[in-house]
Automatic annotation (TrEMBL):
InterPro entries per record: CBO0543-like
Metal-binding keyword on record: no
TM annotation in the entry: 6-24, 36-55, 75-92, 99-118, 130-151
UniProt keyword Calcium, yes or no: no
Keywords for the protein's UniProt record, in alphabetical order: Membrane, Transmembrane, Transmembrane helix
Superkingdom field: Bacteria
Organism for this UniProt entry: Paenibacillus sepulcri
Name listed for the protein in its UniProt record: Integral membrane protein
């Protein structure tokens, strides 16, 4: 079995995502890692469920003997996009702008997926529609955003930092 066009697409996506991850702002590296790991955990489980329930199929994938889901999409590309979604979220904007940001970011995932669906063997919709991807991406972005806001609280001085529950009292004393 040779390497087809789909494998080259997967390699290019992996390379672009690794570069994008490495280009994340250095001063926000801890936040980047937390967002990535949480989103990987969350979407990996959901991706496996979608494939096992027969909603989607990935005929061409990286580890065909180990798993039936797409490693590149569920574990690399989608979490890296979630990192940038959270790092550049328009937190101080109006609610309509934030809603548009959710909708636009979700469409930025749906449109390439539709292209892959019609022009490659990377994804096949069995009992799935594009709007389910759009809705599920918005929901997973929201869950990741809520986790991010909870985990990376803002200190009294306004500097964003990672705070663990046991450190809250120490930080309150040091920020005075």
């Amino acid at each position: 079995m040779g390497i087809g066009a789909e494998h080259y697409i997967l390699m290019a996506i992996n390379a672009l995502c690794i570069i994008a991850f490495l280009l994340a702002p250095r001063e926000r590296r801890r936040e980047t890692h937390i967002i990535l790991l949480f989103h990987q955990f969350f979407t990996w489980i959901l991706g496996i469920m979608a494939v096992e329930w027969g909603l989607l199929a990935y005929p061409v994938r990286e580890f065909p003997m180990a798993n039936h889901t797409s490693f590149t999409f569920e574990y690399i590309a989608y979490p890296v996009i979630a990192v940038y979604f959270n790092l550049f979220y328009p937190a101080g904007s109006r609610a309509s702008m934030q809603t548009a940001y959710y909708m636009g970011s979700s469409m930025a995932i749906v449109l390439p997926e539709l292209w892959f669906k019609y022009h490659t063997q990377l994804i096949v919709y069995l009992h799935w529609q594009w709007y389910w991807t759009w809705i599920s991406v918005m929901v997973t972005f929201w869950i990741t955003r809520m986790f991010y806001l909870w985990f990376c609280r803002t200190s009294v001085t306004g500097k964003r930092r990672i705070v663990f529950k046991t450190e809250e009292s120490v930080l309150r004393e040091s920020d005075k």
